[in-house]
Amino acid sequence: MRLAPDARNGRFLAIVLLLIVMLLVYVIGVHWWFVAPQLAMSDQMSDLRDQQQRFAQMAAQRPLIEKHLAEVRAFEQNNQAFLTDSDANSAFSDITQRLKQVIGARVKDEGRCSIVSNSNFKGGEEETYQRVTIQVRMRCDLEPFAGILYDLENSNPYLFVDQLMIYRQQVGYFVPGAPKSASPLDIRFNLSGYLRQPGKPVK
Q1: Tens digits of per-residue pLDDT, 136-156?
Q2: Cβ neighbours of residue 193 under 8 Å, at least 6 residues apart?
């Protein structure tokens, strides 16, 4: 005896509904509460294993990193580009003394080249290393001053000259029959050096 078409359709529909119910039961009752947490935990464990491998590689490189850091520290300690002073106040005096030494080595006639004034300059832009600057005013002939400038900028520690301004002095009077000589130039500039210690971070 053959089943009627409606009976076969009803059985097929019942099977489909049963499968849907079983799927919902699995998703809600099994997957959501058991399988999904296990999958998430497995992903976390995989990430942790990757992190552990990276940390292990970094730890293995620690002796090499420490060696490089020691080399950098030794280089900085022996680097003659920086001023030897530990603070700005003593560095101001040191730069002034170096300027006087250079002038003394280059100038034979102090009447033709001398320091009129010098003062500490605080301010300016923030830099990676702390900059120490003195503002200098001199009266000097051009030829010895060119040599002074060369010695300053080619010395150790490094010194830098900027804001250089040169003015020609006005001759007050002229005595007939006396040899005519030009008045020394009025020279103004900033003389700077850098301390070994870091300054404020540059933004």
Answers
A1: 999 999 999 999 999 998 888
A2: 82, 83, 91, 95, 131, 132, 157, 158, 159, 160
Structural tokens at position 31: 């997957």
Both tokens of 160, joined, read 């830098």
pTM of the model: 0.56
> How many C-beta atoms surround the C-beta of residue 116 within 10 A?
13
Q: How far apart are CA 87 and CA 68, in angstroms?
A: 27
**Residue 97 to residue 116: CA distance in whole angstroms:** 14
pLDDT at 186 over 90: yes
CA distance 130 to 128: 7
Is the Cβ–Cβ distance between 159 and 192 less than 8 Å? yes
134 and 96 Cβ atoms separated by less than 8 Å: yes
pLDDT digit string, tens, across residues 102-143: 999 999 888 889 999 999 887 667 777 888 999 999 999 999
Contacts of 79 (CB under 8 A, 6+ apart): 196
How big is the chain, counted in residues?
A: 203
